[in-house]
């Protein structure tokens, strides 16, 4: 997969790709991430990428021209599955969305800033709008990092034990069951006996029951469409 990230603040989004699973995914060649500084596509001498709102109102708006130049250049080089805009009024990211997006070959992610982008960018270039939740961030970069992390860890070969993504919370619309490691007893607090029994069919059954119970308590909404 190739991900092209368009941003006015590349320094804000680079570090998540320089550690742990994302770093390894890049090193293994399973994903390529390219950062494009929108200011490099500005045509004015101050490298501005924003302007005042037509009709008045507080806050600057990201201009269409540098975004057009950047997206058009990228689209001339390859075909993109989606051109995504990070925005609080987009479709809320969830595990199903991440699963579907992990199948893509090439995507562009545009990070918004200030009041957002000129509506014509959304109307003519963007194919999908994603929000990471019902709150407003200072810009789309942190949201883009969250989206990339959620997608990249699902690409086959990224996690060393592929089944571990399959047992994550939200896969199958269930939250993950409780997990334990050594010691089997700490300050009198014991690990459930079943997990030490070696009876794997029973352990699997216990995990399924716990996952269901936990989901029913915390997120009954996830069970509504079952
Ligand atoms: N930009 C600002 N707020 C955002 C959010 N909640 N999700 C995605 N991008 C954003």
Give an account of the 3D structure:
The chain is an alpha/beta fold. The chain has 2 domains: 2-152, 3-Layer(aba) Sandwich (Alpha/beta knot); 167-223, tRNA(m1g37)methyltransferase, domain 2 (Trp Operon Repressor, Chain A, Orthogonal Bundle), CATH 1.10.1270. It is built from 8 helices and 9 strands. The protein has helices spanning 10-13, 20-27, 64-77, 95-101, 119-124, 141-152, 163-166, 200-218, and strands at 2-7, 32-37, 50-52, 60-62, 82-92, 106-111, 128-131, 185-186, 189-190. The strands form 3 sheets. Strands 2-1-6-5-7 form a 5-stranded parallel sheet. It has a two-stranded antiparallel sheet with strand order 3-4. Strands 8-9 form a two-stranded antiparallel ribbon. The protein is elongated and about 70 Å long. The mean pLDDT is 95.
What labels would you give this structure?
alpha/beta, two-stranded antiparallel ribbon, 226 residues, methyltransferase, 5-stranded parallel β-sheet, binds adenine, Alpha/beta knot, Trp Operon Repressor, Chain A, Alpha/beta_knot_MTases, 33% helix, tRNA processing, tRNA (guanine-N(1)-)-methyltransferase
CATH evolutionary superfamily of the largest domain = SPOUT methyltransferase, trefoil knot domain
Query: The biggest beta sheet, please?
Result: 5 strands, parallel
Could you give the order of the helices and strands?
EHHEEEHEHEHEHHEEH
* Cα-atom radius of gyration: 22 Å
Q: Which percent band covers the strand fraction?
A: 15-25%
The percent range for helix content is: 25-40%
Query: How far apart lie the N and C ends?
Result: 32 Å
């Amino acid at each position: 997969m190739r991900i092209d990230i368009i941003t006015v603040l590349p320094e804000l989004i680079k570090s998540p790709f320089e550690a742990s699973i994302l770093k390894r995914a890049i090193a293994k060649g399973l994903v390529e991430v390219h950062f494009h500084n929108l200011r490099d596509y500005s045509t004015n001498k101050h490298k501005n990428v924003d302007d005042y709102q037509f009709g008045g109102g507080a806050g600057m708006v990201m201009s269409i021209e540098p975004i057009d130049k950047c997206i058009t250049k990228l689209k001339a080089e390859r075909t993109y599955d989606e051109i995504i805009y990070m925005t609080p009024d987009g479709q809320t990211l969830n595990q199903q969305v991440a699963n579907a997006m992990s199948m893509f070959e090439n995507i562009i992610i545009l990070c918004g800033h200030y009041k957002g982008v000129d509506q014509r960018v959304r109307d003519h270039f963007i194919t999908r709008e994603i929000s990471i939740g019902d709150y407003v961030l200072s810009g789309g970069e942190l949201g883009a990092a969250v989206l990339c992390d959620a997608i990249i860890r699902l690409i086959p070969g990224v996690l060393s034990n592929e089944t571990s993504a399959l047992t994550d919370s939200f896969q199958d619309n269930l939250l993950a069951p409780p997990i334990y490691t050594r010691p089997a007893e700490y300050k009198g607090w014991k690990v459930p006996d079943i997990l030490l029994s070696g009876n794997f069919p029973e352990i699997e059954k216990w995990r399924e029951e716990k996952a269901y119970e936990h989901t029913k308590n915390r997120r009954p909404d996830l069970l509504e469409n079952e």
